[in-house]
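Our preliminary data section would be incomplete without showing what the modeling component actually yields. Below, a chain of 169 amino acids is followed by its predicted structure, encoded as tokens that our downstream tools consume directly.
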Amino acid sequence: MSCKTIVILLLALNLTACGDASESDDLNQLFLTFYPPQSAFPSDVADDEVVSYKRLLVANGIERVNITLNQRRDGEAPTSSEGKPSDQYAVFKVTYGNSNTFDIYDENQVFLYTHTVFAEDQGKHFCISIDQQDEQLIESELPLSFPEDNAETHQFIQHCRELNNPTAS
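Predicted structure:
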């Protein structure tokens, strides 16, 4: 299944997922890929079991975006019961002025952490953990674009997991 074109124009943020938004030379842009670190997997989960992570991102205290990751502890690509790559909602383009603050909440809307990006962060693709105990923002070499489909989304997430835990690869 190819990535659905989804454009979310947020009032103060213009956070976009799997789509294109209008470009503005006056605003800064960056990409975020959310990923689960190894520590986020429950200890009783088998390596080949798919774990679904749901998070809520609140930008600048106003705009809300749901994040969904379906991942396996062993890093292999998760698949649906039909054998297709699992849906992921994990890569976002952020358009902002001087700064933007993200609050991350878990699936029960319990606050996890806050992170702020600034003008000097523009033009980069960052990996951002879904777990408050891990480094929140890691600069990556991922392209400044959206993945083409769910399989490529998994590759983006896997890249971030490897950056977070380089000895596991």
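Strands lie at 15-17, 28-35, 50-59, 63-72, 91-96, 99-105, 111-118, 125-129, 137-140. Confidence is low (pLDDT under 50) at residues 1-13. Preliminary results of this kind motivate Aim 1 of the renewal.
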